[in-house]
Amino acid sequence: MATLELRNVNKTYGSGLPDTLKDIELKIDSGEFLILVGPSGCGKSTLMNCIAGLEQISGGAILVDDADISGMSPKDRDIAMVFQSYALYPTMSVRDNIAFGLKIRKLPAAAIDEEVARVSRLLQIEHLLARKPGQLSGGQQRVAMGRALARRPRIYLFDEPLSNLDAKLRVEMRTEIKLMHQRLKTTTVYVTHDQIEAMTLGDKVAVMKDGVIQQFGTPQQIYNDPANLFVASFIGSPPMNFIPLRLQRREGRLLALLDSGQARCELPLGISEAGLEERDVILGIRPEQISLAPTTANGLPTIRAEVRITEPTGPDLLVFVTLNQTKVCCRLSPDMPAQVGDSLNLQFDPARVLLFDAVSGERLGTVGSSRNATGNVAQFKGR
Ligand code: ADP
Ligand code: MG
Q1: 49 CB less than 6 Å from ligand 1?
Q2: Strands 59-64 and 67-68
Q3: CATH of 239-366, one of 2.40.160.40, 2.40.50.140, 3.10.310.10, 3.40.50.2300
C-alpha cells in the first residue's frame, strides 16, 4: 500500500508535437481507488505508462510514498499494470501465465504455487488453471488480472481492463474488481472511458480531456457539482440537459425563462451576479431533476409541456419534451402512463439547476454549488 502523487506532470512525445499531458496534479491516499476517465485519445494510457515507467515524463514528478520515482526503471517501481489488450502467452497454461512474473523473479517453487493458489481463489479461476488462454473466452481478462495480482505491488494500474468484454461480463467483473479492492486495499488507478464504471468503482474520480485534468473529486462531487460543461456532459446517463438561453433580471434577481410552446415558466436562480444577463449561458439540468408536478402546488416552478417521445427503460420512463426549442429528457416513474402527445405539468428544483458560460463552458454563479462549497475543484482549465 502506498500513496501516489503526481506533481505538475507533463509529457510530450517529441518537439513539434502537442503536449499529451499538461500539468497533471493528482494525489491519492494509501488504499484509495482512483478512476481516470475521459474520451479516447485524451492521454489516459500515456499517464498510466508514465506512472508504470514505460514512458518517461517530460516534466514534473511522480511520487510514491513521498519519494520521487520518476527516474526509476519500471521493474524497480513495484507497480503492476493490467493492459487493455491482455497479452497472455497462448501456448502456456493459465497456471504458467499467472506464475510467469514470479518465475522471472526466481521465487521458490513452493512460494509460486502458494501465490497462484491465492490469486486463482481470489479471481475464482481455480478450475481453469490447466487450460490454455484460447480455451477461456471471457475468462482471459481474469487471467491477465491474475498475472498482475500474483505480485503484491505497492500500486495497481488498470488500463481499460474490461473494454474488450461483452456487456454482461463487464458488469460482473466490475463488481469483482470492487470486491477485490475491498479485500486487498491496494492503491489503484483504474482507467476507463465508461462513465458508469467511473461512478461505481472509484473513491476518487479524475476527469480528463485533451491531456488536462478537468476535475478531481469524489464521484458525488463530479456528478452534483461539475466544474465545467465538459464534465457535466461526460458524466451521467442519460446525460444532463443543456438549454442555451439569456437570463432575465427582475428586481435584482436573475431568472431563466423557459418556453414549451404551450406555456412559459420563470425559474428563479437565486443569484444576482452582475452582468450575467448579458452573456450567452447554458442551463444544465439532469433528467432526474425534472419531475411531475403534484396536483397541489408546492411552490416549485412548473411548466406544461407536450410529450414528444417516450423511452421506457424498465426502472424509469424517459420522456422527451421541447423547452426553448431544445430537446429535454425527463426521468419519470415507469408507472406514469405518459403517451406521445400528452401534456404534462413538469417542475424543476431551481436549487439543482446549473449554469455554464456558453462560450468557455465554465461554471457560472453559485447556483447548485451551495450544497458543496468545499472547493472540490482541484483544477479547472477551461473546456
Ligand atoms: P487514451 O489512452 O486516453 O485513449 P493515449 O494516451 O493513448 O490516449 O493517447 C493520447 C495522445 O497521445 C494521442 O493523441 C496519441 O496519438 C498520442 N500518443 C500516444 N502514444 C504516442 C507515441 N508513442 N508517440 C506519439 N504520440 C503518441
Ligand atoms: Mg488508452
Answers
A1: no
A2: antiparallel
A3: 2.40.50.140
d(CA 41, ligand 2 centre) in Å = 7
CB 365 within 8 A of CB 271: yes
Task: State if residue 46 touches ligand 1 by the CB under 6 angstroms criterion.
Answer: yes
* pLDDT recorded at residue 372: 37
- Confidence band of 371 (pLDDT split at 50, 70, 90): very low
| Nearest Cα residue to atom 27 of ligand 1 | 13
Question: What are 241's strand-pairing partners?
Answer: 285
How many angstroms does the Cα of residue 45 sit away from the middle of ligand 2?
Answer: 4
pLDDT at 368: 54
pLDDT at 374 over 50: no
Read off the pLDDT of residues 245-259 as tens digits, 9 standing for 90 and up: 999 999 888 999 999
Whether domain 4-233 has CATH 3.30.1330.30: the reply is no
H or E stretch at 217: strand 212-217
**How confident is the model over 72-81, as a mean pLDDT?**
90
User: Closest ligand to 56 CA?
Assistant: 1
Determine if ligand 1 sits within 6 Å of the CB of residue 186: no
Taking the domains of the chain in order of start, what are their residue ranges? 4-233, 239-366
> Per the structure block, which three cell numbers stand in for 94?
493459465
Ligand nearest to the CA of 47: 1
CA 107, 109, 113, 114 torsion: positive or negative? negative
